[in-house]
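Fill in residues.
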């Protein structure tokens, strides 16, 4: 599995180094990263504003089915070798807050 994503992961890491978020020496590719990437499935549900090229909108709401929200890791474009739990919870709270705010305003969710 790692061989399939290694070049893309390296490009992502290079971007972090270029932006100054990380040092090249801090990034090590090895067996451990394979285990981390392989443990969390994500990326099966594309996010976007255009229903012809994505499954959910920016609030993780399905384009084709009213009032169905996808707040798991399937909208993540890829994993970065870290446990996605905190990001998943943060997004679920973001989406849930948006749903409550829309409901309080009397806006339709569909």
């Amino acid at each position: 599995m790692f061989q399939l994503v290694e070049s893309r992961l390296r490009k992502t890491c290079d971007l972090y180094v270029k932006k100054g978020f990380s040092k090249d020496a801090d990034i090590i590719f090895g067996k451990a990263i394979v285990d981390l990437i392989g443990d969390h499935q994500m990326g099966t549900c594309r996010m976007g504003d255009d229903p012809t090229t994505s499954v959910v909108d920016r609030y993780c709401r399905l384009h084709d089915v009213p009032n169905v929200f996808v707040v798991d890791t399937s909208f993540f474009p890829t994993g970065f070798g870290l446990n996605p739990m905190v990001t998943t919870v943060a997004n679920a709270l973001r989406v849930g807050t948006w749903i409550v705010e829309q409901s309080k305003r009397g806006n339709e969710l569909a």
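The two ends are 38 Å apart (CA to CA).
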